[in-house]
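Support request from a user on the community tier.

User writes: "When I paste my structure tokens into the form, the page sometimes reloads and wipes my input. The last time it worked, I copied everything first. Here is what I submitted, just in case something in the input itself triggers the reload:"
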């Protein structure tokens, strides 16, 4: 039996906390409670003073004290369920919930309304209050234009802070006259901007903010107040709804530029394809009202819902790591969601689960939902099973504020509340801005097809500016002409910008985060093919090897890990460097040169195949040792994090990180190559296309383990064909290395170039410890990345069969060539698949002029791997003999016996064209 079991469950928590507080310090509780607690020992073994049973204790509680508990129960009811009975919906009747907050449900009656209760003290009053006053207070705090969900939070200090904050002023806005006029000014900008576009560009899609215009004064207020908190940078992500207004009225993008985009003019650059106007990013400086300079960034985004949220968090973390290590809170992420999107897109859950993880936290995000109560044409009742679209926020026990978007002051008040919470507790907070969408999904849509009742109500409904104007006029703050003048001044300025835009023939798109990228050049495929100096000194390699081969002597480690770490020095001394040494020495030399390195993904610290061991755990304490951070005092920082079990969210985060930090080698590694399927949106919409759409360079590296070792469909293929199909002109690199030295130089090339392109590397599994997959120290120091590796040991005059291939398959074929003692076969490795080294391949074809049998060999099925890519980019490939598995729906067989047999058939066919395996 619980020691408080005689209490109603609803107020047990409050009573228990109060009693524990009394036990710790009797003087800290109110006198009436102190007198009550002094009479009973609730902590004794029998739950009652001097052995009395709980029941007898309960019967001795005075009537007025039981009434106090009932009032406490009422207060608790408002705090937990008040949000269900708010005035937050501007165009619809709220759904009905039972039981209501009527006093009869709490054992109280009208006769109690004038009775004073000590419970009033917990609402911020200086003493007891009548039940009537208590109810009035609770209605104002919890059931007016702002509904607050927070009682599920488990940290007492957060609960107390929220309750104290709500009690101040009854959770009602208190703005000065000047502040009210400024809110009206920003509201007018939001409304006037949309009506101007509506009249000048009739029927064009703009995804207007109408019905949610209060977002603009809210964002304006939060940016200004955050500057007072010391926030230096803001990074925002939002989809198309209201984006144009936000760009102009918050981020300061010239309306002239937006008009140019509406006019559909061509771009000033031929190599740039651009994107629709409501997807483009923007970066600007702004001065707060108090004169503080702040840096604003709104990330570009595709139509794919919620993807930009992960990118924003990555951008923020990169800025924090680079410039604000002392206080992450100086960079503030704001993510604007749609109601249907936040409820329906799984990425949001991934993002929220990242919020407090070491490798991904950003000290809290303000999430704002522009709640149209509709998704395209889908009613909210069909869009989710949860009560609210924001219920995913409860996963991390984040407070949620539901606000009537028609009440401008309430919206600003709630947003500032959210900012205060984020700055105080460094955690996420959600604002559900409940409004409507004036038109259909876009301005050419007919919403009455699917929501006739709703849109009848919307058609008669005043916009938020007019509602607020009426309120200020009624208070005597402004007269009839005040808003007319505001509107005229603003629209005259827009008209002037429109005239200016018509004088220009081309649209100029400013690169996103241009200051971050000003020292980097944008290049085409010809520049991508130039050799980059990636050499280093043997002395430097020696120094780094010594550091990464020696664990601290005063700490205890598992014996096996000690041997693994010490083996690095042995490999170096024996001049046989393996794949792990290629990685460690590439990272080490880059760190030594001042670059940062960030690696994240599932189990990357150790490595899925136990080859990396970049983080070593002390056996007894599990203290983490990162030897790569112990090179010297001036080195860059090495970050490596095991991610949550996410691909989509984490790839998006790391992409954003690379976008904001071009001098960080940013790597995402898949546990197995085709696990990246889970991040396909990021590959299609960002990695392969962003430079064409938004002028955004990005140097993200993706490591995708790939190779057929009989481990089934999902553990064999990195889906090489998918990436190669996305390649075009100069959008990214794709490589499939076969030697540690090439991996070493490839990683260094990524940072030593004066431009950034995404780099996809198909990495090995069995080659990580293959005795022949080793390189020399000298090749690391003085070599360079080879896009193609010739068969240097073959006699050109003897070669009858020339085999072109890529990746790990080389070692299988080389072993068979040795077994067969075939000196008439040359194996040439294509190490870079895009941009394809066509000149080098043609030179090889010319070199082996006696070869009458030219083979493209791959271990993947015919419909997978690089074969179709070779056919597309190399005309000669049409005459190659193909040696591969036959076409399959799955990449590999699950049966080890069957997989081995198919692999052997391909190998046999490489060396004997009569053994056609295409059956």
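"...and here is what came back when it finally went through:"
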């Amino acid at each position: 039996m619980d020691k408080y079991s005689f209490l109603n469950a609803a107020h047990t928590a409050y009573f228990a906390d109060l009693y524990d507080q009394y036990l710790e310090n009797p003087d800290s509780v109110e006198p009436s409670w102190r007198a009550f607690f002094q009479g009973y020992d609730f902590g004794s073994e029998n739950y009652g003073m001097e052995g009395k049973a709980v029941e007898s204790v309960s019967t001795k509680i005075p009537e007025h004290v039981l009434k106090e508990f009932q009032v406490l129960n009422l207060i608790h009811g408002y705090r937990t369920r008040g949000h269900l009975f708010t005035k937050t919906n501007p165009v619809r009747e709220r759904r009905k919930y039972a039981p209501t907050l009527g006093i009869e449900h709490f054992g109280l009656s009208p006769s109690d309304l004038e009775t004073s209760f000590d419970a009033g003290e917990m609402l911020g009053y200086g003493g007891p209050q009548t039940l009537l006053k208590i109810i009035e207070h609770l209605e104002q705090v919890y059931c007016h234009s702002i509904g607050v969900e927070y009682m599920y939070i488990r940290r007492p200090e957060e609960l107390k802070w929220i309750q104290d904050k709500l009690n101040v002023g009854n959770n009602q806005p208190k703005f000065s006259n000047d502040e009210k006029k400024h809110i009206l000014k920003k509201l007018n900008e939001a409304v006037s901007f949309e009506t101007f576009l509506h009249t000048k560009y009739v029927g064009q899609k703009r995804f207007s903010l109408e019905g949610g215009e209060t977002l603009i004064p809210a964002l304006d207020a939060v940016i200004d107040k955050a500057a007072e908190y010391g926030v230096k940078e803001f990074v925002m992500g939002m989809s198309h709804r209201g984006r144009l207004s936000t760009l102009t009225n918050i981020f300061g993008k010239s309306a002239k530029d937006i008009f140019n985009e509406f006019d559909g003019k061509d771009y000033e650059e031929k190599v740039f394809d651009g994107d629709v106007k409501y997807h483009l990013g923007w970066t600007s400086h702004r001065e707060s009202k108090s004169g503080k300079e702040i840096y604003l960034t709104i990330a570009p985004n595709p139509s794919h819902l919620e993807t930009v949220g992960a990118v924003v968090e990555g951008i923020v973390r990169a800025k924090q790591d680079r410039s604000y290590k002392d206080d992450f809170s100086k960079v503030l992420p704001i993510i604007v969601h749609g109601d249907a999107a936040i409820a329906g897109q799984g990425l949001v859950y991934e993002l929220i689960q990242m919020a407090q993880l070491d490798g991904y936290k950003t000290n809290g995000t303000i999430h704002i939902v522009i709640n149209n109560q509709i998704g395209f044409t889908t009613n909210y009742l069909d869009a989710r099973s949860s009560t609210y679209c924001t219920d995913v926020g409860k996963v991390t026990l984040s407070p949620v504020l539901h606000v009537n978007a028609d009440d401008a002051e309430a919206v600003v008040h709630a947003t500032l509340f959210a900012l205060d919470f984020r700055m105080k507790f460094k955690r996420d907070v959600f604002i559900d801005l409940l409004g409507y969408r004036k038109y259909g999904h876009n301005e050419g849509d007919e919403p009455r097809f699917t929501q006739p009742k709703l849109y009848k109500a919307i058609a008669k409904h005043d916009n938020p500016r007019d509602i607020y104007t009426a309120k200020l006029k009624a208070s005597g703050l402004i007269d009839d002409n005040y808003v007319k003048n505001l509107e005229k001044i603003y629209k005259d300025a827009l008209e002037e910008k429109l005239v200016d835009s018509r004088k220009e023939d081309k649209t100029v798109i400013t690169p996103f985060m241009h200051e971050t990228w000003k020292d980097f050049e944008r290049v085409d495929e010809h520049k991508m093919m130039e050799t980059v100096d990636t050499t280093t000194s043997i002395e430097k390699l020696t120094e780094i090897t010594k550091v990464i081969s020696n664990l601290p002597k005063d700490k205890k480690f598992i014996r096996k890990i000690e041997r693994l770490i010490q083996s690095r020095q042995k490999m170096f001394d024996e001049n046989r460097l393996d794949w792990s040494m290629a990685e460690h020495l590439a990272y080490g030399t880059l760190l030594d040169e001042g670059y940062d390195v960030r690696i994240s993904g599932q189990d990357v610290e150790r490595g899925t195949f136990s080859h990396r061991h970049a983080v070593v755990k002390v056996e007894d304490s599990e203290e983490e040792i990162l030897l790569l951070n112990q090179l010297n005092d001036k080195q860059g920082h090495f970050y490596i994090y095991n991610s949550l079990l996410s691909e989509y969210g984490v790839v998006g985060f790391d992409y954003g990180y690379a976008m904001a930090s071009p001098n960080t080698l940013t790597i995402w590694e898949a546990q197995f190559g085709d696990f990246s399927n889970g991040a396909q949106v990021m590959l299609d919409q960002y990695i392969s296309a962003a430079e064409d759409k938004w002028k955004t360079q990005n140097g993200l590296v993706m490591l995708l383990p790939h190779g057929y070792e009989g481990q089934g469909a999902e553990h064999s293929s990195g889906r090489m064909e998918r990436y190669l199909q996305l390649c075009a002109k100069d959008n990214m690199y794709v490589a499939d290395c076969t030697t540690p030295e090439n991996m070493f130089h490839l990683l260094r090339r990524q940072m030593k170039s004066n431009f950034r392109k995404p780099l996809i590397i198909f990495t090995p599994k069995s080659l990580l410890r293959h005795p022949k997959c080793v390189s020399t120290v000298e090749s690391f120091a003085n070599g360079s990345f080879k896009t193609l590796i010739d068969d240097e040991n073959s006699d050109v005059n003897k070669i009858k069969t020339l085999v072109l291939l890529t990746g790990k398959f080389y070692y299988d074929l080389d072993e068979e060539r040795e077994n067969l003692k075939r000196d008439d076969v040359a194996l040439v490795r294509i190490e870079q698949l895009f941009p394809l080294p066509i000149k080098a391949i043609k030179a090889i074809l010319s070199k082996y002029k006696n070869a009458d049998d030219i083979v493209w060999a791959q271990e993947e099925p015919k419909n997978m791997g690089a074969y179709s890519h070779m056919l597309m980019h190399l005309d000669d490939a049409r005459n190659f003999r193909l040696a591969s598995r036959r076409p399959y729906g799955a990449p590999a067989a699950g049966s080890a016996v069957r997989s081995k047999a198919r692999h052997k058939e391909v190998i046999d066919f490489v060396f004997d064209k009569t053994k056609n395996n295409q059956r």
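Agent notes: The reload is a front-end session timeout and is unrelated to the input. The mean pLDDT is 90. The CA atoms of residues 117 and 783 lie 83 Å apart. Escalated to web team.
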